[in-house]
Amino acid sequence: MAAAPPALRRLLLFSLLLLASVAAAAEGEEEEEFTEELLLRPLPDRKALAHFHFRSSAPPSAAAGRHHHVFPKAIAQLVQQFHISELELSFTQGRWNYEQWGGYDPMSTNYAKPPGVELWAAFDLPLDEIDATWKNLTHTLSGLFCASINFLESSTAFSAPRWGFKLNEDNLRYGALPREAVCTENLTPWLKLLPCRDKAGIASLLYRPSIYKGYYHSQKLKLTSSQSFGIIIDQTLTVVLQPDNFRGQQLHSTDGQLQPSWSMKDLFNRKLSGKCRVSKSSRVFLEIEKDIVDKSGTEVSWTNELFVLSTAPDRVLKELNNMDAQSSSLYEYDVSNYNNDKPLDVGITWKLPLIWSCTPAPYHANRFLMGSGNERGSIALSFRSTNLHKQLFGNSNDCSIKAVVFQVVPWYVKVYYHSLQIFIDGNSKAISELVDKIHVTPSEDKHLPGTLEMLLRLPCSMESATLSLDFDKGFLHIDEYPPDANQGFDIPSALVTFPEFNSSRSYPETDTLSVSRLLQTFKEDGVVKSYTEVLLVPLTTPDFSMPYNVITFTCTVLALYFGSLLNALRRRIGEEERELKKAATKRGLIPLLIAKLRGKKVDPPPQGSSPTSLLSTKLLLKVVFVVVVAVSFHYLSNS
Amino acid sequence: MAIRNFWSMAAAAVGFRLVLVLFGGDLHLASRPEVSTPLTSIRRLAEGYWLKQASMSPYSGSMYHGSPLLLLVLGPLTNKRSVGHHDHIYCSLIFVAVDFIAAMLIRATGRRLQIARNRNLKSLELTEAVSNSVNVSAGDIASLIYLWNPWAIVTCVGSCTSPIENLMVVIMIYGACSRLAPLAAFGYVMATHLSLYPAILIVPIILLLGYGPDAPPTKVFRIKSSSASKTDVSDNDKSSSSRDVQQFLWKPVFHFILWMLFWTFYVLLLSSIVLNKVGGLQEMFEKTYGFILTVKDLSPNIGVLWYFFAEVFDFFRSFFLIVFNMNIVFMVLPLAIRLKHRPCFLAFIYTAIVAILKSYPSVGDSALYLGLLGLFANELAEMQFTFFLFFGYIGVSLLSPVMHNLWIWRGTGNANFYFATGLAYTCLQTVLVVESVSSMIKHDRKLRLLVTA
């Protein structure tokens, strides 16, 4: 840990505090703020979810060159430079398992992201400057996060969705790179934006080998800026980890159903020894799902017959829910109460085998490819009902559920939108029955990706629905293939939104002064969303070693055509026969040469000297003419 | 010597098409690379129509590259589905009719050519010398070739729009042969509107309208008349009448040009009405002619240009685009000079050259020029390499689907296999063009020798 003597550290801290207070006094009541929070949650499939949430905010400032204390300067400059009103960038590895980990809570709707990089930004700019600004932004972000976000610069990579992704007035751009690999080189610059980096506070738990071992890893940066409240950045890291320890008695063969017990030490190989000093609040939450609370009875204490927590929480929060009596509960720990000598190690130990499930989204959305071969295929999007609406709205069967599908397809997947077919429970239905609104931006070769936004109205009574779209596979120029061309090309995830379902959760506010920013984001509007799988489309490849051969072969064939046809037209068989006769009779060298020079124009053999001299004067004139032309050309080109 | 069972064979060809269309099921011919090109594919037309119905420009995106008039005519038919048949059955039925009309027009053209030929031979007093060796009804042969050509059948059943393009070219040639300037102008304008390349056919059309159908070279008549005047002075009117045949008539040409302007204006007006509110003519030209000339789509077809432009270095692309496009135009003048007395044959050669060198060739184009080839059965009877050509065509059309299957569907072959068949096919067509030109020239020379003898 820190090598500096404690006295020096205390002095430094004191001076920092003094500075901060002076700055605060100068600024008035508004000041930069940083909070750090961690949410832990056991998942039904023996895994654990950890969600890190860091918020930095800067008050609005009139001056461009503002001095920042805890707020990252790079971000402030970014916002100023590109006039961003909203931006979200996520790096994700792995896929959120909507069936096991839930699809109807703030975590899955806001922090479950498609694999690879997803970036969207809304600009506060005139419409004609947005595309150019987007390109610059991608380059800046690419440098800032050590990722190939700059590939989103090309107009084939980003789109401007109208309403399928988010309502906007054409000032939003959306792009995704499904193949981008995410690793520590993206995390390090992301951590640099935090005031304490990963040296202290909650971020110190981010021990690389353990967080990259997980099943799902999504690091996200959300930025909102406005004149009234300044700039706010939410940096979140969501990981799903497998607690790999099995403590003594739980390895009993009889109770195989017992969930693994874990603590922070098991998950991250670290314990939490105090908060980041500049953070306004630093908290750890442990969330217990509604389903468990149901089973454990009404009493929600940190030790009950189902489980026991390793440390007594500072507070227990219950979700305010108007529909159910039972709701999930949160155990809150204030990190400022812990220090090096007394580190915090939140954990859960199960006492009884327990099976529970998370609330799913109204439909499980899956996407897959159909067909074989490299010529054509179809994309199918399937919805499987989870019967959530029956729990929520009762058992009425003549209702309908809205679903918005937003899908971007790269141009080399040439979708035939007229081939859209919808099957409800296996029966083909008319498009007009189910599609309320559709907006298509067809793809343009090497220029624009295709965008499909569709508002569906699915009947409640159905069990499954399938949408299918036919496509032709495009053929690319050899330079357009990536180095590993035979691996195939990715179609980014489609986004399915259920606008009638809101996953926001609210918790009672006990303390108005130190509101948890994490719980605040949970309370914000959270329309239920789910991302589908990334699709891998194999495309045909030409022979990459062939360009010279192809050029020479093709040109040879064309030369053959041209030459032989011209020859056939030029040939005069009668004259050729006559010439053959003449060739039989011997002739002098000079007339032959002349005849050749004149292009085989056959004339009677020289009988006297006068025709020869006439010929030679003509020849002389020709030579002189050519020389004059050459000299004048040379002269002109030189001058 | 007409073919005896012409009508029964023609009916059988139409019946065969109908059987394939109605009971053949979905043969997936509409997506075969040999049959449909980005320009003629009916699926792309359906997509264009869908976009137009969704009040978008049919040319938005890179799907549709055809004419707006086709959208107007065929578009509504693509929406109708009948149970148990493949998707575009109504379009296929239309194309059966279109093919039949085209075959009948080819037959009528053949009749005209036959009449002209007989008259010319008579005036040259060569009727016995030439006609005894070969004299078949070329029109019947040509229309039967067109009807029974497997490629024409495949194109028709696969319902891509090339039968309509072919029909327009045939209408143009028929109209010019029978000196119907409005009809010829209509065919010319429509064919050019649909696929651009028939634009070069203006040369044979004007020659046809000016000089009339194919005849032996003027020189032969001159030799004949001079020899006739030497031997028999009293028989003067015959030679003068034969010279009158070769007189260039400006009136039908002038009419043709007027009608051409009219039809052009009319077609553009109709297109702009169809595209009203969803796009403009500017966009139409960019997406149809621009798409043809810049070879933007690199999907495989039976030609060679797709692979060439998929492989060629980017900085050479414009150069080769210019070279390949100019290649078509380069041959127009030499051919016109040498074959100006046989405008119909000239039109056939131009169609064949276009089929070789066009940016998105399909077997539909070959079906057209092979049909027209039948019109010259008498003149080209002594053509060389016919055995080689016939089996070459069969071999390529069998090998090409196999290679395509190996490359695209099984993944065991690669693009070079398929490209090789494309090269072979281009070579075959080249040999066909060169051989037919040289044997036509030889035929003319033979006539001259016969006259002088």
Automatic annotation (TrEMBL), chain A:
| Top-level taxonomic group | Eukaryota
Alphabetized InterPro entries for the sequence:
PIG-T
Q: Does the keyword Transmembrane helix apply?
A: yes
Question: Which GO biological process categories is it annotated with?
Answer: attachment of GPI anchor to protein
User: Transmembrane stretches, by residue range?
Assistant: 548-569, 619-636
- Where does the record locate the signal sequence feature? 1-28
Keyword tags: Membrane, Signal, Transmembrane, Transmembrane helix
State what protein this is by name. GPI transamidase component PIG-T
From what organism does this protein derive? Oryza glaberrima
Taxonomic classification = Eukaryota, Viridiplantae, Streptophyta, Embryophyta, Tracheophyta
Underlying gene: LOC127755215
UniProtKB/TrEMBL annotation, chain B:
| Any one GO CC term of the record | GPI-anchor transamidase complex
Does the record carry Membrane as a key word? Answer: yes
Which BP terms does GO give this entry? attachment of GPI anchor to protein; GPI anchor biosynthetic process
* Location of this chain's protein in the cell: Endoplasmic reticulum membrane
**Keyword Magnesium annotated:** no
What is the protein's membrane topology class? Multi-pass membrane protein
- Keyword line: Endoplasmic reticulum, GPI-anchor biosynthesis, Membrane, Transmembrane, Transmembrane helix
Family per record: Belongs to the PIGU family.
The name under which this protein is listed is GPI transamidase subunit PIG-U
